Amino acid sequence: MSFQPSIEDYRKAGLDINKYSPTTFIRLLSFLYKDKMWLDDHRIFAALGIQLMPMFFRTDEWDHEDDKPSQHRFFRLIVNALEKNDASLIQIENTNTHWRYWGTKIEEGDY
C-alpha cells in the first residue's frame, strides 16, 4: 500500500503542514478515510453480541460541557428523544468535540 498525501489534502483537512506531528498525520487520515476509521453497524452489533437493529441516532460531534451527564444539555436531549422515540429532537448546536478544537502537546522528542 502506498500513501502520499498532498499539501492540498492537508489544506482541505484544515491542517497546518508546518506544524506537523504524528497527531497531524492521524487527523489527516481521519479526514480522508473517516469511513474506514469507524466500525460499521454490522461490526458494532457483532462486537456487542446482539442482533442488528436500526440505529436510533449517530453523531461524532456535539457540544461537550464539563457538567455531569444528567445536567448536560446534549444528554438531556438524547433522553428526551429516546422517551419520545424521535431522534429529530436531538438538535446539535455549537459543536466543540471535533479534533480541530483540541491542541496537542506533542514535542519533537516525543516521536
In brief:
The chain has 111 residues and is mostly helical.
Shape verdict = extended
Rg, Cα atoms, Å: 18 Å
Task: Give unreliable regions as ranges.
Answer: none
Tally of helical runs: 5
Helical percent range?
Answer: 25-40%
* H/E element sequence: HHHHH
Strands, count: 0
Average pLDDT reading? 85
Note the beta-strand portion. Answer: under 5%
Largest sheet: none
What's the end-to-end separation, in Å?
A: 23 Å
Structural class: mainly alpha
Task: Give structural notes.
The protein is mainly α and 111 residues long. The radius of gyration is 18 Å and the shape is extended. The chain has helices spanning 7-12, 22-32, 34-37, 41-48, 73-84. The protein has a domain at 56-98. The protein is built from five helices and no strands.
